[in-house]
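Input chain follows. Return structure tokens only.
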Amino acid sequence: MTVPESRFPTQYWHQLDDGRVQCDLCPRHCKLKEGQRGMCFIRENIDNQVVLTSYGRSSGFCIDPIEKKPLNHFLPGTPVLSFGTAGCNLACKYCQNWDISKSHETDTLLDAASPETLAEVASQTNCRSVAYTYNDPVIFMEYAIDTAIACREKGIKSVAVTAGYICEAPRKEFFKHMDAANVDLKSFSEDFYWKITGGHLQPVLDTLQYIHHETDTWLELTTLLIPGYNDSDKELHALTQWVAEKLGPEVPLHFSAFHPDWKMRDVPPTPPATLSRARAIAQQNGLHYSYTGNVHDEDGGSTYCHQCGTRLIGRDWYEITEWNLTAEGTCPKCGTQCAGVFEAQPGTWGARRQPIRLSR
């Protein structure tokens, strides 16, 4: 088969007896007739094999602060080259990036760049990492992995911003190439996952445990709190207790504010007090690092020593306002180690957002 440049043969699928092929990338297990696309939109049955149709093409490129991913314990203050493609393998009714993740228009994929070009541009713009984001990178994993390999050759890290909805075999392959990940734990309720996202909770929990316990990938979590849906004390206690027990208290957890979007425009924005309450519950259940996001909250965005309470990293939105970590990444007052990937000094990128256009 001759494959056009944006079409890339994939590995995780198998032939069914009825002539269809089944995609084995994620727990949806889409069963596809010839010419049919999976729910993610960018994986298609072409000549009886599953092909990635967006290889080397993106919905856009931008240099962001790493804190926007959000990652607070991975190379703070540094710039990250961010990009995504189109489509998604979940169907979140509140999707905040719906114009990209729900897009079924190939015109969305206007920008193009090879993995080698991305690595070179990241190097030339002094980005310390490349983030696969805006839509979920597991659905374009072949493009992301090739980019990660090209970046690693230049000393550039790779960051996955993902919902973690992926099967066991591709999970191992994907995260082998990722240096850091922020996983969106959307709720701690199977009912929420099924009714609001069209997916299931357990595969995400499996991904979280795999990343933290079986890889060297630095892990942080994000939960978008939606009023009346996943913000009850009962659920927040269950979620944070699970994180503390199954992952460990050192895994950072970000609670982000919802704003009305996509198919949930009738739901009010998250009150800042809800985020503060969630953060307090996380601390009560032993988590060392919990944060508030999408609101102006310097206290909730800053990093503190879990042993003595010293402010280690001050943040105002995406700006680092204070840096008290030692060169060894410890608290200057009590010597307790702060979990994360740190250098002696933070980066100075700040809150800038710089869109860029690339070509092959």
